[in-house]
Amino acid sequence: MSLRINSEAPNFTAQTTQGPINFHDWIGSSWVILFSHPKDFTPVCTTELGYMAGLLPEFEKRNTKIIGLSVDPVDNHERWAKDIEETQGHAVTYPMIGDTDLKVAKLYDMLPEEAHGEAGGRTAADNATVRSVFLIGPDKKIKASLTYPMTTGRNFDEVLRLLDSVQLTAKHVVATPVNWKPGEDVIIPPSVSDEAAKVKYPDGWKTVKPYLRVVAQPNG
Hints:
There is one protein chain. 30% of the residues lie in helices and 21% in strands. It has helices at residues 23-27, 43-61, 74-88, 103-107, 156-171, 194-200, and strands at 13-16, 19-22, 31-37, 64-70, 96-98, 132-136, 142-147, 186-188, 206-209, 212-215. The strands form three sheets. A five-stranded mixed beta sheet has the order 5-4-3-6-7, with helices on one face. The two termini are 37 Å apart.
């Protein structure tokens, strides 16, 4: 299966550190960040899980749930969580999926269907492509995805910025420019005519080029 933006996020049932879940039911009416790891007790992932734990209140303000996944059993996750809190200073209070049969990794196209074996017989290198972030909307559609190599820690401040942009553009017919941050000017898409823009933005906008119109970020 090839997942693209606006593909439905595949549903699954799985064991997590907070009990069994049906993924779509667990999402409910929230946004979700699903981020995956090739193995427990790996150094880069240890720093990532701890940083996400510290950012959790920011995601909660945005009606966004966090869920991790690692190709290892849940009891390993629980032991790993102790190391994460000790070394990173934040307790992991979001659920972690145990994907020992590789089912979820395959569903999300992070491993090929022909990948075989259980978690215990596989190394982090075997699972190197299980290093993705999926941003999923309340409609259960994939809004964005990122994949990193094992040697490069992910920038979760950027994931938070991405979430802000996706939530804004889902609510208002705008686009965000390069390096945009909340509160900065946004772009009126070419699909919105000048006549329609006058209604939406009575205070006007700046026309850099006919196809590049900049306006203050809408509120609400």
